[in-house]
UniProtKB/TrEMBL annotation:
Residues 163-293 form the Glycosyl transferase family domain. SUPFAM superfamilies: UDP-Glycosyltransferase/glycogen phosphorylase (SSF53756). Pfam families: Glycos_transf_1. One of its GO terms (molecular function) is glycosyltransferase activity. This is Glycosyl transferase family 1 domain-containing protein. CDD domains: GT4_PimA-like (cd03801). It comes from the Bacteria.
Length: 382
């Protein structure tokens, strides 16, 4: 295998950055080839809180970058596909990207076809990317989960009250379904003092101003949909570093993920690794690791992105996807409410499902296995 130059956002807590960091460290641990790191800077939300050893390993790869013969190396560009520029002076260029709709943006297709090949984490992306016009070879390299770090053993977050806890973890985006979560929770549990909804979310960068915008959205939603009623325990967390994420998951009884589109769904796999039951829309990249009997899958219909969704809650890519006619999955709202009530009333039935899911993830979805699959696929591209 050629020396590798990894170009991606490894310092940050977005799903992209977390996956990039974990994959890169697992690949380095295999010691199959020298690796140089060219980190991309993304303004991507919460503090990652990397361990000291991880930081040292990443910094060492940054130093190695200057020592590698670029003209003989393979570039692995881990980013959004519109940023792919081809080989950039390297002997070979492989891209890694995901997308969450039933297609791929036109400029993403162009970027993907500038590369020698592409790796994607799911068959969902493989199929839709090919239909959209991606012509280069595509390898299937699923993401992983660190089941030692994300474990059911250990304490929870002490700052949270002791109630039955629904957890929502995602950017404030139409695609992630916070509006559905808020509505379902308040309709079901506004008068239940023993139930709470805990939210870890951000709009852009998780600064105090940014979190205040999320808080204002929640208040505006209450005002508009529930005439300003203040019943119902809803907590918006400030910055919780990634090193404390297992404790946050262990503080939850159920993870809510009624997404309208998901390329992978890192919080879903991490929650299940902590044996936290999950309610998720049964569409998208989750099929790569989530079995139907390991979580509650919500039914859905594929629908256009509504024209009245504010651009602020779409971002540039979904705004473009709307203009290009892409579809997203609209989950069955009544089924979401039923599933939430069922898990509240019969929790240990669903806890047993999550325990089975952890066993599956431990056996099949480690980051080491992801790195090994990448190496094996690269051998076919020599």
């Amino acid at each position: 295998m050629r020396p590798l130059i990894f170009q991606g956002p490894v310092y940050g807590a977005s799903g992209y950055a977390t996956a990039a960091r974990r994959f890169l460290l697992a690949l380095q641990a295999l010691q199959v080839t020298p690796i140089g790191l060219n980190p991309l800077t993304w303004n991507c939300g919460f503090d990652a809180g990397e361990s000291r050893q991880d930081l040292l390993n990443l910094q060492q790869m940054e130093k190695t970058l200057a020592e590698l013969p670029r003209s003989q190396a393979c570039l692995l560009h881990w980013s959004i596909a519109s940023e792919f520029l081809g080989r950039q002076g390297c002997a070979q260029a492989i891209g890694h990207t995901v997308f969450e709709t039933n297609s791929l943006l036109k400029d993403f297709v162009s970027g993907a076809n500038r590369m020698d090949g592409l790796i994607v984490p799911t068959q969902f992306n493989q199929n839709y990317f090919r239909q959209a016009g991606v012509q280069v070879p595509m390898g299937l390299v699923p993401e992983g989960v660190d089941s030692e770090h994300f474990s059911p053993d250990g304490p929870g977050l002490k700052v949270l009250p002791q109630r039955f806890t629904f957890l929502f973890m995602a950017q404030l985006s139409y695609r992630k379904g916070l509006d559905l979560v808020l509505k379902a929770f308040l309709e079901l549990f506004a008068k239940h003092d023993d139930v709470q909804l805990v939210i870890r979310s951000y709009l852009r960068d998780s600064t105090p101003k940014d979190l205040d915008q999320v808080r204002q959205f929640i208040k505006a939603f209450r005002d508009q949909e529930f005439k300003g009623q203040q019943n119902g325990h809803i907590y918006l967390l400030s910055n919780v570093a990634d090193s404390y994420m297992p404790a946050l998951y262990r503080s939850a009884n159920v993870l809510l993920a009624p997404h309208r589109g998901e390329g992978w769904g890192l919080p879903i796999s991490e929650a299940l690794a902590c044996e936290v039951p999950v309610i998720a829309t049964g569409w998208g990249g989750i099929h790569e690791y989530l079995q139907p009997d390991h979580a509650c899958w919500l039914n859905y219909t594929l629908e256009p992105i509504p024209p009245d969704v504010p651009d602020l809650f779409l971002g540039g890519h979904l705004k473009q996807a709307r203009a290009e006619g892409h579809l997203l999955a609209e989950p069955d709202y009544q089924q979401l409410k039923y599933a939430m009530w069922e898990m509240y009333r019969n929790y240990f039935v669903y806890k047993a499902q999550a325990m089975q899911a952890r066993e599956f993830l431990q056996k099949h979805m480690s980051w080491q296995q992801a790195a090994q699959k990448f190496v094996k696929w690269m051998e076919t591209q020599a």
